[in-house]
From TrEMBL:
Transmembrane regions listed in the UniProt entry: none
HDOD domain boundaries: 13-206
Name the record gives this protein: HD-like signal output (HDOD) protein
InterPro entries with a match to the protein in the record: HDOD (IPR013976), RNase_Y/CdgJ (IPR052340)
Provenance organism: Thalassotalea piscium
Amino acid sequence: MDAEDYADQAGEMFVLSDSFIRIKELIDDESSTIDDIADIILLDPALASTILKLANSPFFSYPGKIDTISKAVLVLGITEVYNLVIAYFATETFKSIKCDAQFLEEFWESSVDTALIIKYIGFKLRMPNAERLFILGLLHNVGELVMQQLAPEKAAKAANLSSGQLPWQKQQAVFDFTYAEMSAELLKEWQLPFSIVEPIRYQNKDDFEFSTAETKLLYLAKRVMLANYQCSDIKQEHLISPDKLAEVGIDKALIKEANEFCDLERLGILAVLNPGSAMIY
């Protein structure tokens, strides 16, 4: 089976709710108003509560209080709120997965870290249209959850890295595809935008010649995260090439700042999106 075959199975198991589909339809419809979108979100109290908690978190640093969904859409913008909707439904969808609780805690912690790191770096580089960066980081590795569910023995084998081996190298050896490709195929099944799917698909591509700015940032942010987790024993120069850092305009000082920002914001985001993971703190 290839990544598309697994994605077909996963698409039947991990289904986004009707509320998500309706919100997506409204956002895609240029005639929709802010109130139209807010009204659909309000039909799901848990979703509405999550959006308001995130909108009022230090993550967005809005100086006033956002106390209605309409205001959240107005202040944060439709794209940002849509990304929060995706984040909510994606984390909710995977709560049904059958796997070790500690693995899930570590998975969402590393995913949130990647999301925070890429968001911070994108902000510091003043990247235009940076709203999608957080969701790129959060969903960059959901393919691993799929394989934990559909092929747990192989997933366990893929997690067992040899000294100096990078995760995607082992995934390729075990599955003949990477979790990046698996993630992209699932997100395509969910009909998420191309601007989200493609950077996730090509996040491991070393050749930057045809990479978008978002793909380059995800490539680097994911490696910064891995340096703190699964690949902490690998020399930074092997994990993150100085040439790649220079090409994107990132230095070690910015990486340090991004990690510090991540340490400050991680618990707050986990507490909203995945309260079980926040308990480990």
